[in-house]
Design brief:
Elements (H helix, E strand, L loop, with lengths): L4 E4 L4 H12 L5 E4 L10 H6 L7 E4 L2 E4 L1 H11 L9 H30 L7 H19 L12 H11 L14 H5 L1
Parallel strand pairs: 1-2
Antiparallel strand pairs: 1-3, 3-4
Amino acid sequence: MTPPILYDFELSGNCYKVRVFASMINLGLVLQNVEVLKGETRTEEFARLNPWQQIPVLRDGDFVVQDSQAILTYPALKYTPQWIDTTPMGMGAIVEWLSYAAKEVSNGPQLSRLKFLDPHEDIDLVRAQAIGLKVLRLLDNSLASRDWLCLGRPTIADIAVYPYVGLCRQGKLPLDGYPHIHPWLA
């Protein structure tokens, strides 16, 4: 059986979350580096793989899935269902956090970090950092009474939110003053 291929970029937190999850569930991946900063996602060849022209992309045989949240869901359902939940309430709780990772975390900590990694990006840093601080406050408050984001155990929700929060200092967002985030990150 051929291992899945992850079209990857080392600096991407979205790719990182897929690599971390694959490592945690012992899912061997073939990493195919995509030079995002050199425009490799904007080629016709890459657009045939992913019309959104974004990374990460996972190819498992003939099946292709794009978007880090969808990619996390796929191997969880296929290989390790303990990382998701089969109940409507449980899956609803997980999907809330997947959406949070895709919107709020992306528009805050992720964009703040990107502005410092690639200053040519047209990013409103003040807005991104304001959203980032809101993300950190909400996350810290959510973790004040629990160890995990939902269901009382680690799920793909934790993996989805983790990278850009863990890297938020690269976007000049402080982690000091958020005591409940530190144990969760550890």
